[in-house]
Design a protein that fits this description.
Radius of gyration: 25 Å
Number of strands: 11
Strand content: 15-25%
Largest sheet: 6 strands, mixed
Distance between the termini: 57 Å
Mean pLDDT: 94
Number of helices: 20
Low-confidence stretches: 1-24
Length: 521
């Protein structure tokens, strides 16, 4: 039987160790007797906000070298050869406010693997070869991969920079082309000493661990520096004064990826968060076909692959079916994510009979999404919509903790928010929730007429998009000749209404893709 508890014996031993070190380590425990494995997580409260000005990406780089590089005792290659027979796993992830190192190993090999963990986190070598290799990979991501591999993820990262401009959240966690060019091996070693300290560390342990393991962790990690990490004060992001659009111009983009949103003053710490989860799930639950945006844009009109909305950052939405732990943040935002819709260029190349087409689906899709969002804000949910969505979430959110690693991760995130076990607590909050709670939360947190929008598209689409957004001209829905006969009169009437839905744009900027994440203006 799984249980979550801290044993009195552990506490007594921890107090004894702490008395000798002057430091009481923070722990999150998930005891699972007879599980046959041990999971360890080390969450440092630093993240990309701890990057020095002009050295953006330094914390991410430091953590990556710690995880993928060698140590004072072993090279990276030697470590990989050692841990392979143990079926051990390890990885790290750096977000805006935390860097988390995760380790998992069968219990029988714990002592051997723990020796490697100590080397990784307490005695990284930061060898020149490891530094150059990891820095090169990070530069390649910032200079090439983020712009070329996924326009959806690209647009979402650009939207974050737009929403959080002027705050420590603004820059990409991996940094910029300009900042990475300035980072030296000495910078990395200095950041390790400054940002990976013992008083910004939470240790999580899960599985069939012993009290002795807790004592050893407390003693061994007491050698980390005690000085406070260089964490800046978070300045609140302000909602834009209207609707601002950045159109990112790319060569040979497959379509137009759209990301839109605004900052929102709510996190999982708030009692309103569960209510807002219901509203958002109804509008655009990630990868769920029942949601309103998916039904309207994908299901009825076959315009793209998926259309979703979020009330917090969703890590790697293109790859993760479920939310993952490790991205706790004190600042959040609402966003709508429309996977690429077709440009006029792509539509004409696929369907004979559309040769005269001058505009693709982007403005129509954006109008549809904003209209559905506007209707939700003004009308709220019906009782039937509320009940169906809440009941879905009561079951669905249990899947977030489908394994021990994720369960421990979400518990550690919970501690960040001042909670104990958010997933369990969320279940109780959803059970108590009422329709009026959800509709009140919608009115309190969702705003109209103030939004930042990023559209990543092909060069051929840019000028028409800018002109259409600035003028507010009609943007009719265009169907392929094969589909036109199957469109119902109800959908045609809906199309007509959507094609003129007002988007009060204040400003439209065109940005060359090569200038993004580079510090170029």
């Amino acid at each position: 039987m799984k249980s979550i508890k801290i044993f009195c014996s552990s506490l007594l031993l921890l107090m004894a160790v702490a008395a000798g070190t002057g430091y009481a380590q923070e722990f999150v425990e998930l005891k699972q007797a007879n599980s046959g494995k041990i999971v360890l997580k080390f969450m440092f409260r630093n993240g990309s906000i701890a990057d020095p000005v002009g050295k953006e990406g330094l914390t991410y780089l430091t953590a990556d070298i710690m995880m993928d590089g060698g140590t004072e005792k072993y090279t990276a290659t030697e470590i990989q050869k050692m841990i392979f027979p143990w079926a051990a796993r390890m990885n790290c992830f750096t977000d805006k406010e935390v860097s988390t190192f995760s380790f998992e190993v069968p219990s029988d090999y714990y002592n051997d693997f723990y020796a490697i963990i100590l080397q990784k986190l307490l005695h990284p070598a930061f060898a020149e070869e490891d530094f150059q290799r990891t820095l090169s990979n990070q530069k390649n991501y910032v200079d090439e991969v983020i712009r070329q591999s996924s326009d959806e993820e690209y647009g979402k990262k650009l939207l974050e920079a737009m929403i959080f401009r002027g705050t420590p959240y603004e820059h990409l966690t991996q940094g910029t082309s300009a900042s990475l060019a300035t980072i030296t091996r000495e910078d990395v070693m200095a950041q390790y000493r400054k940002a990976f300290t013992r008083n910004n560390l939470i240790i999580g342990i899960a599985g069939d661990y012993s009290n002795e393991m807790i004592v050893n962790l407390t003693k061994d990690f007491s050698v980390l520096p005690q000085e406070p990490a260089p964490i800046p004060e978070l300045t609140k992001a302000e909602a834009p004064a209207g609707i601002y659009v950045d159109i990112v111009s790319k060569d040979n983009a497959i379509g137009t990826a759209i990301s839109a949103g605004f900052p929102m003053d709510i996190t999982r710490e708030s009692p309103d968060f569960a209510a807002l989860m219901v509203a958002n799930s109804w509008l655009g639950e990630h990868r769920k076909s029942y949601s309103r945006l998916y039904q309207k844009i994908r299901e009825q009109r076959s315009m793209n692959y998926g259309d979703y909305s979020y009330i917090e950052w969703y890590e790697n939405g293109g790859g993760n079916m479920l939310p993952v732990p490790g991205t706790p943040r004190h600042m959040n935002y609402f966003s709508i994510w429309l996977r690429p819709v077709q440009t006029a260029k792509s539509l004409k190349s696929q369907y004979p009979g559309l040769d005269s087409l001058k505009e693709g689906h982007a403005r129509f899709a954006l109008r549809m999404a904003l209209r559905e969002y506007s209707n939700l804000v003004s009308q709220g949910l019906t009782n039937e919509q509320f009940e169906e969505t809440r009941n879905f979430l009561m079951s669905y959110t249990k899947l977030y903790v489908e394994n021990t690693n994720k369960k421990l991760g979400f518990m550690m995130d919970s501690k960040f928010y001042g909670r104990t076990d958010w997933i369990t607590e969320l279940g109780r909050e959803l059970t108590r929730l009422k329709l009026e709670d959800v509709n009140a939360a919608i009115k309190k947190y969702f705003i109209l007429g103030k939004m930042d929008i990023v559209m990543v598209t092909d060069k051929s689409e840019v000028d028409g998009l800018k002109t259409g957004l600035e003028s507010g001209s009609i943007s009719p829905m265009v169907y392929s000749p094969a589909m036109q006969s199957s469109v119902t009169e109800e959908i045609k009437a809906d199309d007509k209404e959507v094609s003129t839905f007002p988007i009060p744009v204040v400003q439209v900027r065109i940005i060359e893709s090569d200038n993004t994440f580079s510090n170029k203006k």
